[in-house]
Amino acid sequence: MKFESAFRRHLIRRAAYSRDLGPQELWSVIDQWPLYCGQYQLSRHLAIIDLVREILGVPGDVAEFGTWRGATAMLVAKVLHTYQPHDSKMVHCFDTFHGLEDFLPQDGPASGFSGEWAGSAEELRAMIRLHELEDAIVVHRGRIEETLPQLLAARPELSFCFAYCDADLYGPTAAVLEHLPPRLLPGGLLAFDEWNCDVFPGEGIAVGEFLSRAGPAFKARAVSTAAQPSLVLEKKEWGGTPVELAGIPPPATT
Q1: Domains of the chain (ranges plus CATH)?
Q2: pTM for this model (two decimals)
Q3: Angle subtended at Cα 165 by Cα 245 and Cα 61, rounded to the nearest 5 degrees
Q4: How many C-beta atoms surround the C-beta of residue 90 within 10 A?
């Protein structure tokens, strides 16, 4: 992956600095986060913030697929609260919290990362309580292939404005692209963290299959300011494009 060697060098330098620095009080370090945040991560977070700002005027909730420890979900919830403190948007987090598993042939070399990026739903819920975001974030624990269709079946009124797909693998990404686009409102965005990545090819394969079905209903966009997210799909407005291919019929005309 492009920039991977530079990122790995940064991690090595960061580990050495941490050893030299010694134990530190947690919150005094966190409050000075610009000192410690690497350029790669800062660029990624700013790109996500830019996407969230884009969808402030689009109705519906936000979904994150592949939550890990919950940093992106918490970032999105805090940005939404900053810009729209009285809006009703919720952030839905989907993860097994077991790390990567259930590999398919499309995932190729990703199977070498079995168990990596395991999170803790309990730790995430504790952080949600700490920041008093219980009414802004919902955690859906389990396989995305199961929890997403279950949620949509139980909540037929639920619509979305933004989804961040960071599940890495073919199975959960394909499930997201099967079930969520019909609930994504025009102007809404789908962002992908590992699209076109040779280490995690399953995500890109699932996206390619989806675009071959959706046709012009979605516009593909690059992110010029960060390596990740690596692809954004924008659902086009009602009008001259066949948005029914994405699962939503066009409005009736009089």
Answers
A1: 48-132+144-246 (3.40.50.150)
A2: 0.85
A3: 75
A4: 17
